[in-house]
Amino acid sequence: MEFDVTSLHGRRASRRWERTSVGDILERVTWSRPDKLAIVGHDGAYASSAFSRLTYREADQLANRAGNAMLARGVPRGGRVMLFCDNSVEAFLAKLGAAKAGLVCAPLNTMVAPDMAAHLIERMEPSLAIVDDELWAAAEPGFTEAGLRPDVTIALDGEVVPGSVSFEEFIADAPADEPDVEIHGDDIWQVLFTSGTTSMPKAAMQSHITAHFAAYSFAVTLSRGVHHEAETCLGCFLPIIYHVGDQAFGLSPFLCAGTLVIGRRPDPVGLAEAITRERITALWAGSPAMLTGLADTLEAGRTHYNARSLRAALYGWAALPQGTLATLKRHCGEEFCATEILGQTECVSCHRFSTDEFDEVYRRTAPQENYVGRPSPILAAQIVDPLGVPLPDDSPEPGEVVYRSPSMTAGYYRDEEATREAFRGGWFHSGDSCAVGLEGQRVMLDRYKDMIKSGGENVSSLRVEAVLHQHPKIERAAVVGLAHDHWGEAVTAFVVGSGWEEQEVIAFCRARLAGFETPKRVVGIDELPQTVGGKVLKYKLRAAHADIYAASSR
Predict the structure, then answer these.
(1) In angstroms, rounded to a whole number, what is the distance separating the alpha carbons of residues 34 and 56?
(2) How far apart are CA 491 and CA 144, in angstroms?
(3) Helix, strand, coil shares of the chain as percentages rounded to 5?
(4) 309 and 456 in contact (C-beta within 8 Å)?
(5) Region 499-524: what's the mean pLDDT?
(6) Which long-range contacts (CB under 8 A, 24 or more apart) does 292-298 make?
(7) Residue 410 Cα distances to 299, 346, 360, 380, 415, angstroms
């Protein structure tokens, strides 16, 4: 054993007692609260009942077994472990096990098309693959095209993919001791693929240090309202296997010595049941739609559910309707606090806007304007013009938000060109368009690519959608700009709902929006194309309806 007590720079901490490693997060809590409940799988979020409720000691030993089993299969240091899995306790333990073994998780979004899955498999060259049995039919075409077979099956339906073993069998004979490997904090432990809403996903590299900063920064917000941070019980029914939420929400309860409750998929009823059963205190809700679904479920089952334990919920992508917040406070108590965040796979430190802290601004602007607040304390962020020049704090003009933070991707794996472009000027360019609003709070206008240029004016699709969502007969809405000979781009709304009439909806919008913001057309649609997290795939709407104004413009 060597000790360097001379160098004051160029050091890389890797020794067990001083390193930063995602795999150490569970183990460190075993020294203070070994028998505290660490992970709970809600109904359907585990293959074996043996994994349904795990203490810190049990979870740590199982993650050790998973890591050692991967090493025993010959996965080299830095080798990729690919997962095609939705939420389950076993899949999350597999990720933690890979981190413990000094390996790299490469989870695929389970909604990707086969050709995209094959492309990402070929780029990552995985040494080991883990799949859910119920997802194998969707995964098989892409796996076959790339020449990959699963090694391990998480058998939620009791079926093991031929040629693989169940997760239980995979780890059964592996030692429960900590894997003896060298890990540095700036080693990459996970590669997450961006959502790919406009093109092929990019592979964002996440280090152990990045994950720690993300988890700690969210632990501060998510532990609010409880007497002691160890009382934190976080419910997550949104993806944490292939989504950056694994760091912000999957790991953050462990840094509080709290409990993580994993749900299989987004489900307001299951979430209401879990809040009642597990006394959940904090929630990653994803979108206002999920919170609205929860509020409606609590209201309909007011004698069946008890949500008085819930103190905090985080959401993103749009402003929270004031009626939804009022309903949640009625069921959870006035102490309940909702916080909107703005971040992304590459940088999840996030802007944050607390509806309670900025109550007056929220009441004056929601839901028409999407206030996302200020950068978190570990996030440097500014708004720049198209040339990258910072805009003055009092500028009325919108610009692109750029970031610097220790909770930041190291770059895009095997894509130096995209990395250089994203980090031009020494800041990460988010692609989000924001402006400064009341009290210096930042307002999310749109993704840069989704801003509509109509008649020479910039139109925020999010603002138009917020108005449409206030219409009593519209359940969901998405707004895009489509080619038009006169307007350049025509503001066009696609809505899900029944009983509405196009001209009445247009008049409804015109009473609340400027003329250039008002939709030129309102088109009914059975469902909106979206990711599992709820982001609408607007490029699909634009492609499918590109010629909608062709006849009228001839």
Answers:
(1) 5
(2) 42
(3) 35, 25, 40
(4) no
(5) 94
(6) 292/321, 292/324, 293/268, 294/268, 294/328, 295/324, 295/327, 295/328, 295/331, 296/268, 296/327, 297/268, 297/269, 297/271, 297/272, 298/272, 298/327, 298/328, 298/331
(7) 44, 8, 38, 16, 12
Element (H, E) at 509: helix 502-510
Residues 29 and 41 sit within 8 Å (Cβ to Cβ):
no
The pLDDT of residue 7 is 75
Q: Please give the average per-residue pLDDT across 466-491, as a whole number.
A: 92
Question: Which residues have C-beta within 8 Å of that of residue 62, sequence separation ≥ 6?
Answer: 51, 54, 93, 97, 171, 176
- Is residue 233 a contact partner of residue 261, using CB atoms and an 8 Å limit? yes
Q: How far apart are CA 398 and CA 385, in angstroms?
A: 8
Q: What is the pLDDT of residues 266-301, one digit of tens each?
A: 999 999 999 999 999 999 998 898 999 999 999 999
Residue with tokens 């929860």: 294
Identity of residue 236: C
Q: What is the DSSP string of 334-389?
A: TT-EEEEEEEETTEEEEEEEETTTTHHHHHHHTTTS-EEEEE-TT-EEEEE-TTSP
Distance, C-alpha 506 to centroid of its chain: 33
Burial class of residue 9 in the structure, from the number of CB atoms within 10 Å of its CB (0-12 exposed, 13-18 middle, 19+ buried): exposed
Distance CA 472, CA 387 (A): 42
Average pLDDT for the chain = 93
Pairing of strands 371-375, 347-354: antiparallel
Query: Hey, how many other C-beta atoms are within 10 angstroms of the C-beta on 50?
Result: 13
**Quick one: angle between helices 56-72 and 89-100, nearest 10?**
60
Q: Residue ranges of the alpha helices (H) in 230-267?
A: 245, 252-255
